[in-house]
Amino acid sequence: MDQLLVLLTGMLTAVMISINGSLTASVGMYPSAVMIHLVGVCFSLMLCLWKRERIFVRRNVPLWSYLGGAIGVLTLLFNNYSFAYLSMTGIVALALFGQCVSSNIIDSFGLFGMTKRPMSKAAWTGMLLSCVGIAIMLSGSGVTSLLPTLLSLCAGITIVLSRTVNSKLAATTGAMTGSFFNHLIGLPFCILLLLIMPKETMDLSSFQPWMLLGGAFGVTTVFLQNITVSKVAGLRLTMLSFVGQIFTGIALDLMTGKASSPQLFYGSLVVGIGLLAGMAMEWKEERSQVSVTKIG
Questions:
Q1: Which residues have a Cβ under 8 Å from the Cβ of 147 and sit 6 or more positions away?
Q2: Has residue 88 got a pLDDT over 70?
Q3: How many CB atoms lie under 10 A from the CB of residue 4?
Q4: To bridge 167 with a disulfide, which of 138, 199, 222, 229 should be the other Cys (CB 3.0-4.6 Å)?
Q5: Would you say the pTM of this structure is higher than 0.85?
Q6: What's the confidence (pLDDT) of residue 191?
Q7: Which phi and psi angles does 274 have, rounded to 5°?
Q8: How far apart are CA 67 and CA 164, in angstroms?
Q9: Hey, CA dihedral for 56, 62, 63, 67, is it positive or negative?
Q10: In which domain, by residue range, is 74 found?
Q11: Count of domains in the chain?
Q12: Which residues have C-beta within 8 Å of that of residue 292, sequence separation ≥ 6?
């Protein structure tokens, strides 16, 4: 069930990115970031009040557990810079690689209070196949500039850090309250970016009210991540979320008539095969261990 929720999170993330992209094209990157976070704060607050969750109470949690939203703003900055130099395929592949590496490190050493899960042979096999898929995605993607490449890798790392830190807070506050704080903490950082960054050209004639739904989708994805992060190994969570996100993205491209990179499709397919192979091998190993235990 938890793994299905991770797939659903990836699918909702793709829809959210599409909606937020439309809003960004209309009002600009930084104004849209402020609007997305503002809608997210209001939407999550309404849900918290509806569920009668106690939000602003004193809790015995480290201050760093409130920083998930601020780390998420770093992801926005890294991607904004990279968009001007790299193709979408390159950004997706590099971010995925950054997520794989950081998830593996957090799992292997049990960082941030997460359950320690050393990588098994099955997980290594799945990761190696997934790296082949990432290489396919990078082929012909125009990744030549060093700084944008490094920032795209960092974007993958900050994605993992943000969801891990926020899940630590959610373990104490609850999943929805954790989503509320994620957007609330990120909002002033987005406002600061809006004030200090160069002004952007707006095309308000293309604005539609449904473009504000990205904030609500953002609350939902953070809420689902808060539920699943502590229950699913970080590397598997990354891969499952990616599979749900990328194939939903390809479906959206087909529905809207946008061209999709062949490297992105075939590379994603290999990543999915790697994920399934690793999961199948882990399932076989678990069955073998159960059989040995029963015999013993």
A1: 81, 85
A2: no
A3: 11
A4: 229
A5: no
A6: 93
A7: -60, -40
A8: 10
A9: negative
A10: 2-295
A11: 1
A12: none
